Amino acid sequence: MPAKPALRRTFAVMAALPLLTLAACGYGSQAKDDDTAKVAAGAQKIDGLDSVKIGYFGNLTHGTALVGVNKGYFQKALGATEAKYQVFNAGPSEIEALNSGSIDIGWIGPSPAINGFTKSKGTNLRIIGGSASGGVKLVVNPDKIKTLKDVKGKKIATPQLGNTQDVAFLNWIADQGWKVDAESGKGDVSVVRTDNKVTPDAYKSGSIDGAWVPEPTASKLVAEGAKVLLDEADLWPDKKFVITNIIVSQKFLKEHPKAVEAVLKASVETNKWINANSDAAKAAANAQLGIDSGKELPAAVLDPAWKSIQFTNDPLASTLNTEAEHAVKAGLLEDPLLTGIYDLTPLNTVLKAAGESTVDDAGLGVK
Q1: pLDDT at 29 over 70
Q2: pLDDT surpassing 50 at residue 244
Q3: Which of 83, 141, 182, 367 is a good FRET partner for 276, with 20 to 30 A between their CA atoms?
Q4: Spatial distance between the Cα atoms of 167 and 331, rounded to a whole number of angstroms
Q5: 8 A C-beta contact, residue 205 and residue 49
Q6: H or E element: which one contains 333?
Q7: pLDDT tens for each residue of 189-234
Q8: What are 126-155's pLDDT values in tens digits?
Q9: Distance between start and end Cα atoms, the chain
Q10: What is the pairing mode between strands 105-108 and 136-140?
Q11: In this structure, are residues 341 and 158 in contact, taking their beta carbons and an 8 Å threshold?
């Protein structure tokens, strides 16, 4: 089914947004090598591969990837096959890299995964695991906004047209009975699409009155005097919703299943370590942010941001389906056919071997 013009424009806008890079090296910046990630003596290559290329964002909501890189979990699981990393700041750029073969596996938010899958008519990617839930907040200027009703008529930032937080905010606006044109952001609330990198400066300058954003941007705004008006987790059953998934190209999954299982094994081990060692894991994630970006987060931002994120192997598939429905309701997505977006067989194999509970695809798995 062809995309309607609004959807095509959404993809065009999202694809045109700039990708933050630390160096001019293709789709994303290369993460620097870390001493903890050296190959063990006598290790063998997996599936005969020289390398596996892994993508992730420099966000705390991608903490599994940050910690896994920093502590060497991925390299250990891959043996003599080199783990190579690229850091992204925009979902469409990571999807483009996956489609081109510049990365094989990536950590990414639900909206880019849905958009990538539907745009390719279900041929380019699979979601193979979960990573994180939560870590998204509506933070506001307390002098201008004291209650949720006060959001009406104000200027609120989201990271990007059609991204996960943008869709969530548009859906929340609709639930209040307010009207906003999804593409322009104009209406009862002014939705201002602003890169997370510049949102704190926009807040300080007064050009926005608040933001619906992921961590650590939300806590950066709080450090500038904003207050948390709403935690998105409070809008979801059991306070859980997917914020980060693991995706893989279908070609790579078919040709290199052992490599995929190795990365998933590392992810499961990383999440187990994170949940058992929260403070050490927080420090490792922050250290990797420092390696990738040149600057670690101050404790005043890091501590509350980390506390609001849950790390999980469960992709929380039913919530992804709900998020897709929200995008359809907002007019940013034609009703998608998501059957086949998940292949959780490799993950469930890893979970069983580790003595962990298996996870469900909410009926959206490969048939």
Answers
A1: no
A2: yes
A3: 83
A4: 10
A5: no
A6: none
A7: 999 999 999 999 999 999 999 999 999 999 999 999 999 999 999 9
A8: 999 999 999 999 999 999 999 999 999 999
A9: 20
A10: unpaired
A11: no
